[in-house]
UniProtKB/TrEMBL annotation:
UniProt protein name: NADP-dependent glyceraldehyde-3-phosphate dehydrogenase
Main location class: cytoplasm
E.C. numbers: 1.2.1.9
Family annotation (PANTHER family): ALDEHYDE DEHYDROGENASE
Catalysed reaction, written as an equation: D-glyceraldehyde 3-phosphate + NADP(+) + H2O = (2R)-3-phosphoglycerate + NADPH + 2 H(+)
Length: 494
């Protein structure tokens, strides 16, 4: 049997994966996965029932008990095998990404390779970080004798629900799955519908690596039908979610369950008067328009000093002219956004800005879900695009009088994931970074999530907790202590 044959069932629909087996849902229903380029059906996935969700959680809960006692080196061995299988089978996974999320072909392959590297790094880091404990002695506290030894260790949380987004459905899935498994947890994975086919291929790599059954479960279906059931299930011990406003609802309903959330951003790019404008312009083009701006870390508003604004805008416009626009199969820089509703939302932001006096540096152009890259100049605070996240190939430019005005704009937004500042003065860069109330500030570079072992977090409505391999390993454990009580010595050392 070919590597992927068993993951596809009737009508070419991808199966769910529960308790170590690829299954077709008893619902007999499928959910369509739409190709953003053609708006036709790319793939179909199972519309799982609540009973199948129960089965996934039951399998995960049972498997986790034994996995928690599996040595760290053995867990790492499994993950290294998955890395190898993902890289050996990278092209079929990448091909799915091209069709179902319109990711440029080269970027799709890069995502899969990067994901394999993340898995292996997690295995190595997990062995080191989780293999260390801590010893406390009671006499370090005033008034205490040395009669108690406290042994502190990291133990797994239990069952982790992982929900990645459409834009990086493989990389952001394994960024959750690998730390969860390495820390001794089991996983229920709910992929985005757009991205579920690539997710099924990725899960097959875990299956073929020999991962014990029940440790990783893959449940597909409509969020409106099984979403709340998944996130409020009594078997959930942790939720790791990346996405949009849905995360706010999950937070409100999750109760005492530990949560790791990344909910998007309005990443501000501050360009100072002394900045290397060529460097800034290149980073704005790359940081704002790669994957059509459908990245939480994309440049989403440029705040530039008035005295250099004309020159910067001209340079960015020139860079935008060099971007290829078309199909992801042709490896174009700008490809269709994920859906018609997304394209309509972006268009609404553009029209609002234009109606309120903004300058479109090039004519607005759209064909179905394909929107040509656009820089919008002379944006003012009364425009929606100054504050809302377009998640598309559109960048607003607000001209500001001074640094304080730029920082105030950044800090007034409820979204605060990342930001960046361009200046030749490192002292100014550090002062601006200190003042920007956002999860990460890049100096002289566009915002970026990676490298994947760096801390990654958002403030305010952009998230809860910190991600990155080391931080995710830490978050997916809880601390347990064992106190050894010793007899008080009956003799005096002297």
């Amino acid at each position: 049997m070919a590597f992927y044959d068993e993951i596809v069932g009737k009508h070419g629909a991808f199966k769910a994966y529960i308790n170590g087996e690829w299954i077709e849902s008893r619902s007999g229903k499928f959910q369509k996965n739409v190709n953003p380029t053609t708006n036709g059906v790319a793939y179909q996935v199972q519309a799982c029932t609540r009973e199948e969700v129960d089965a996934a959680y039951a399998a995960a809960k049972e498997a986790q008990k034994l996995w928690a006692r599996t040595p760290l080196w053995k867990r790492a061995e499994y993950l290294h095998k998955v890395d190898g299988l993902m890289k050996q089978n990278a092209q079929p996974i990448a091909d799915c990404l091209v069709k179902e999320v319109a990711k440029p072909a080269k970027d799709a392959l890069t995502e899969v390779i990067r994901s394999g590297d993340l898995i292996s790094y997690t295995a190595e880091e997990g062995v080191r970080a989780l293999g260390e404990g801590k010893l406390l002695t009671s006499d370090s506290f005033p008034g205490q004798d040395r009669t108690k030894l406290c042994l502190s260790q990291k133990v797994p949380l239990g069952v982790v629900l992982c929900i990645p987004p459409f834009n990086y459905p493989v990389n952001l899935a394994v960024s959750k799955i690998a730390p969860a498994l390495m820390a001794g947890n089991s996983v229920v994975l709910k992929p985005p519908t757009q991205g579920a086919a690539a997710g099924a291929h990725m899960v097959q790599c875990f299956h073929k690596a020999g991962l014990p059954k029940g440790l990783l479960n893959f449940v597909t279906g409509k969020g409106s039908e099984i979403g709340d059931y998944l996130t409020t299930h009594k078997a959930v011990d942790c939720i790791s979610f990346t996405g949009g406003d849905t995360g706010l609802s999950i937070c409100q309903k999750a109760g005492m369950v530990p949560i790791q959330m990344e909910l998007g951003g309005k990443d501000a790019c501050i360009v100072c008067s002394d900045a290397d404008l060529d460097l800034a312009a290149k980073n704005i083009v790359k940081g704002g328009f790669s994957y059509s701006g459908q990245r939480c870390t994309a440049v989403k508003v440029v705040l530039v000093m008035e005295d250099v604004a004309d020159k910067l805008v001209d340079m960015v416009v020139e860079g935008v002219k060099g971007l290829s626009v078309g199909k992801p199969e042709d490896d174009c820089a700008i490809t269709p956004v994920i859906s018609e509703s997304s394209a309509n939302f972006i268009e609404g932001l553009v029209k609002d800005a234009e109606a309120k006096g903004a300058t479109l540096t090039t004519p607005y152009k759209r064909e179905a879900n394909l929107i040509w890259p656009l820089l919008i100049d002379h944006v003012t605070p009364d425009m929606r695009i100054a504050w809302e996240e377009p998640f598309g190939p559109v960048i607003p430019v607000r001209r500001v009088k001074n640094i304080d005005e730029a920082i105030a704009h950044c800090n007034d937004n409820n979204l605060a994931l990342q930001g960046c500042v361009f200046t030749r003065d490192i002292n100014a860069a550090m002062r601006i970074s200190d003042a920007m109330e956002t999860g990460t500030v890049q100096v002289n570079s566009a915002p970026a999530r990676g490298p994947d072992h760096f801390p990654f977090q958002g403030f305010r409505d952009s998230g809860i907790g910190s991600q990155g391999i080391t931080n995710s390993l830490e978050m997916m454990c809880k601390t347990k202590t064992t106190v050894i009580n010793l007899d008080k010595p009956s003799y005096t050392m002297g």
